[in-house]
């Protein structure tokens, strides 16, 4: 420690200044007394609280919808997927405001307050008389009493208020945490890569706690308390975040033009110059002294933005080579983003059909205690919490020694490994569901949905564990990839793009479920998603998802093969 302090003391102030960062008073900051793991710990704390709150709602939401709100299984699954989709797409809006106007710190504060308000109202809605207990229905059971209608309206209003809160919170917190590490410093560069691993570890710690504590409270004690506790935890998390204010590094807002305008102008000029010949572009590149690179040869139509439509070269009428390359980095993300949607569709099943599947099985631990079906989601978190330290402390050093890369393997290799494990998890899920249906048939329980199938819920454990392993690789890899592969000023937007994968994936999952429900339920027969899962065919759905996952993996490998990393970020 003394040697470290001596070394720091002898380092010139200029060398110790964090790159492109200021303190909370707008002054240049030093690496030695700001940022790093100390600041990141406050930020991780608020994220643990937020994940505790989010999964306190989402993990058991399908149970609340099919229970107190009285919805069908297919309708509830579609509602969960729709809400999850909106919650994952709104970060694009939150990130835009953060990167363009408010800054990440202010956005986190405002979004957290909105989040807390939504959680409080959600708890209030659960305290009202439930729809399932309402006797004020007409003969066709379509009109609810005014109090029940108010409960439903307040519930969904609160639910989507939480989604808006998450929309501002989610993309900014992680980007703000990663900003606490200076990539110009070799040690902090390695620490930043490690940050993404431990960030996800913290998220899963919060998820693990909520799945064991809140799901039990919601299933056995009170939904009001089950929704109220997340609100309290979120308040504590916000206070922890504010405590770190004086230690944070705040990114310097560039005097350059808004990055959205810069990138947009490249596309506009390229379209306006669509008749420009390749020889004219080549001549302009030579005049600028631009050497041909692998990147410059890709998406060459954008190189037309180097020329003005009227032949003028006045500043503001043409784009620089750097601006064109900036636009190309955004386009390169599109194929990876699209291929990742297949992974996101599979991911959406863990909080819907996996939970309903477990609810039909033998959940007994002791004679008087049954494990809540949603609690098995905790094994995804537990797998991640066990494997991330192994990955970070054992796998990465070994891989680094073999490949020479700071993170051991590239971000794209990590994501691809996760997608493969996700496909395997669907194969296992299909096989287990086939056995569950066979067991129900053997014991004459096909028409007795309220009787537990004599097959232990622990049969579902392999698919949950494989889902956790796939998250360690794909989820963390996607976070790091979309943070590093966008312009620096758009890193909140980059993480929002990562989140939007799961938003669109949830909508696609909802569409897929609705389409299959309609096609397979025609003529009055039981659909694949019948309320009585013993006469349904979730196994067919899982086989379909396994096939889609294989297709998505093939598309991903094709896209990854031609991807060109932003310089210095192959990590």
UniProtKB/TrEMBL annotation:
- How the protein sits in the membrane? Multi-pass membrane protein
Mark the transmembrane ranges.
Answer: 108-128, 148-165, 198-217, 223-243, 371-391, 412-432, 495-516, 540-557
So which domain of life are we looking at? Eukaryota
- Gene Ontology molecular function terms on file: dipeptide transmembrane transporter activity; low-affinity nitrate transmembrane transporter activity; tripeptide transmembrane transporter activity
Specify one Pfam family.
PTR2
Is Magnesium set as a keyword in this record? no
Does Repeat show up as a keyword for this record?
A: no
* Family per record: Belongs to the major facilitator superfamily. Proton-dependent oligopeptide transporter (POT/PTR) (TC 2.A.17) family.
Name of the protein in question: Major facilitator superfamily (MFS) profile domain-containing protein
Q: Which organism is it from?
A: Gossypium anomalum
- Lineage from the top down? Eukaryota, Viridiplantae, Streptophyta, Embryophyta, Tracheophyta
């Amino acid at each position: 420690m003394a040697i470290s302090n001596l070394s720091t003391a002898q380092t010139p102030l200029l060398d110790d200044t964090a790159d492109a960062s200021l303190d909370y008073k707008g002054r240049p900051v030093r690496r030695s007394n700001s940022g790093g793991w100390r600041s990141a710990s406050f930020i991780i704390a608020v994220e643990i609280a937020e994940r505790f709150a989010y999964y306190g709602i989402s993990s058991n939401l399908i149970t609340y919808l099919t229970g107190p709100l009285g919805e069908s299984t297919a309708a509830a699954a579609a509602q969960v997927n729709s809400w999850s989709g909106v919650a994952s797409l709104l970060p694009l809006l939150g990130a835009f405001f953060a990167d363009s106007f408010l800054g990440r710190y202010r956005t986190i504060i405002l979004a957290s307050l909105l989040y807390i308000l939504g959680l409080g109202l959600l708890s209030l809605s659960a305290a009202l008389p439930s729809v399932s207990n309402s006797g004020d229905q007409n003969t066709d059971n379509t009109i609810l009493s005014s109090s029940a209608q108010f409960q439903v309206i307040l519930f969904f209003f609160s639910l989507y208020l939480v989604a808006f809160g998450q929309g501002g919170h989610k993309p900014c917190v992680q980007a703000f945490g990663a900003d606490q590490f200076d990539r110009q410093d070799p040690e902090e560069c390695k620490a930043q890569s490690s940050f993404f691993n431990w960030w996800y570890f913290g998220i899963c710690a919060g998820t693990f706690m909520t799945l064991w504590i809140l799901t039990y409270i919601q299933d056995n004690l009170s939904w009001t308390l089950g929704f109220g506790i997340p609100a309290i935890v979120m308040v504590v998390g916000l206070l922890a975040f504010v405590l770190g204010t004086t230690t944070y590094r705040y990114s310097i807002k560039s005097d350059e033009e808004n990055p959205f305008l810069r990138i947009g102008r490249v596309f506009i000029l390229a379209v306006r110059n669509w008749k420009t010949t390749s020889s004219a572009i080549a001549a302009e590149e030579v005049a600028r002294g631009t050497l041909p690179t692998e990147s410059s040869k890709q998406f060459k139509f954008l190189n037309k933005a180097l020329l003005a439509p009227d032949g003028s070269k006045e500043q503001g009428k043409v784009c620089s080579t750097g601006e064109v390359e900036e636009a190309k980095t955004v386009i390169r993300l599109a194929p990876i983003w699209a291929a990742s949607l297949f992974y996101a569709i599979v991911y959406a099943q863990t909080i819907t059909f996996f939970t309903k599947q477990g609810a039909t099985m033998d959940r007994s631990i002791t004679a008087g205690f049954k494990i809540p079906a949603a609690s098995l989601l905790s094994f995804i978190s537990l797998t991640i919490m066990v494997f991330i330290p192994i990955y970070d402390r054992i796998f990465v050093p070994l891989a680094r020694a073999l490949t020479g890369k700071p993170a051991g393997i590239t971000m794209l290799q990590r994501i691809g490994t996760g997608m493969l494990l996700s496909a395997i998890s669907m194969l296992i899920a299909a096989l287990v569901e086939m056995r569950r249906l066979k067991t129900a048939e053997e014991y004459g329980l096909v028409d007795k949905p309220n009787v537990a199938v004599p097959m232990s819920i622990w049969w579902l454990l392999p698919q949950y564990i494989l889902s956790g392993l796939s998250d360690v690789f794909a989820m963390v890899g996607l976070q790091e990839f979309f943070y590093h592969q966008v312009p620096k000023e758009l890193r909140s937007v980059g993480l929002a793009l990562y989140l939007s994968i799961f938003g669109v994936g949830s909508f696609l999952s909802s569409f897929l479920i609705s389409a299959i429900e309609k096609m397979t339920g025609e003529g009055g027969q039981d659909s694949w998603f019948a309320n009585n899962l013993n006469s349904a065919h979730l196994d067919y759905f899982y086989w379909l998802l396994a096939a889609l996952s294989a297709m998505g993996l093939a598309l991903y490998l094709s896209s990854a093969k031609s991807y060109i990393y932003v310089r210095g970020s192959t990590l």
